[in-house]
Amino acid sequence: MFSKLRLVWLVAGRELKDQFRDWRVLAPMIILIICFPFLMNEFAKQTVDFLNQYDANLILDRFVPFSIMIIGFFPITISLVVALEAFVGEKERGTIEPILSAPLDNWQLYFGKLLVGVATPLAASYLSIALYLILVTRQDLNMPSPMVMLQLFLLTTAHATLMVSAAIVISVQSTSVKAANLLASFIVIPVALLMQGEAVMLFWGNEQVLWLAISGVIIISLLLIRVGIAHFQREYLLGREIDSINLTWIWRTFWKNFIGGARSFGDWYGRVLGSAMRRVAPAIFILALIAGVSTWMGYDWIMNNISQVIAKASPERIEKIEAGIRQMPDLSNLQGSISAPFLFLNNTRAVAFIFFAGLFSFGVLGILLYMVNIGVIGGLYALFELLGMRPLPIFLAGVVPHGIFEIPALMIGSAVVLYIGAVIVTPQTGKSMGEVILELLADWTKIFLGVVVPLLAIAAIIEAYITPGLLLSVMAK
């Protein structure tokens, strides 16, 4: 085992020497490490002074955790160019053949490049953060708590691993450095958007949710590493010379997998769609278990948090809340105000959003959104229970009639997202990454059109024309 790891260090050492010989990489990094902490510190002071002129009452100490996160992010973006050139740069320089012909396993070569790709920006980020912390102590500002500091360093490490892992995947799949650099925006922009949400958590001081964000980023990073190793093919690196978009091949591959050789609609529905459902069946079982856990988590969270608020509320306040629940919306007018097409489009859009969120995160974000949707059911049940409103009859009348169709549709649609994430990170011998993705898209389209859409259509009709009457009869008692 140690002999195999030694080969990883051998590749990493070679990569590190190449980096330190290139002044075009070192010079911007050194300038950024030295200058950016001073710039960020001055920006924070000027922002606080300006906003306090309008009675904002902001304190510079609140900007310290945010500044640390931003300072740790920028050196990673500069160093990303090194990871983007990890393989495709070797190919353009003509040095890829000796590396690929060396007696190294694919994972050793991949991890050697990944190790240096992550270590270099992390070292730059840590040095920049350390310099900023020195500035903070000299200004008599309050340092973040040890727990927040730990979260900030873990976030910086997770961001570096995520971005470098994605960059190396792009480097393996690209045929030129120019193409790899152009695709860098698909790394930087999503992570920047992610950091905006993390910044909100920092300002709110919500440490528990921030731990979930750290865990999610780490999971996606590990999945990206797995994707890179699963689809790393030496022949692919040497064989392709130019990227081209073959729309005919894309459509032909997708349509071939979508039709599956069916000769009639009945044959397609029974054999092709049935085969796709059997492939997704294990994921559906897992999603059913997740649904139970999510419902319990929503119920438990409301019982532990909202119960304290209700316990402190006066009886008059509770009566007003109950009256508001009974009147919002007006159940007597609900049956005529909500249409089945509106509900159908809304639910279809939700399932499609879960798919796209999961597609770009290997199922992680899609499953999280699924858990939130299912968790709301348990939360509402607990809320009605705390208010003494007979939750079981309300749910039997207001959720079950359309829920027996809508919840399985949501579960199946989300299960396909989990299945896609699992297949992408699994090695597919003899298939390119593009071909695997097209086959998975065909499977999702088959299940979406053949199973999810009909279930959502039935659920929308019941929810629009049957559920309001049943719910009104229960709420009126």
What proportion of the residues form beta strands (DSSP E)? under 5%
Overall SS class = mainly alpha
Question: Given the structure, what is the number of helices?
Answer: 21
Biggest sheet, open or closed, and with what strands and sense?
A: none
CA radius of gyration: 27 Å
Mean pLDDT: 79
Count of discrete domains? 2
The tally of strands reads 0
Extract low-pLDDT stretches: 328-332
Q: Give the termini distance in whole angstroms.
A: 71 Å
Order of helices and strands: HHHHHHHHHHHHHHHHHHHHH
Helix content: over 70%
Query: What spatial form do the alpha-carbon principal axes imply?
Result: flat
Task: Put the structure in a nutshell.
With 477 residues, this protein is mainly alpha-helical. The chain is built from 21 helices and no strands.
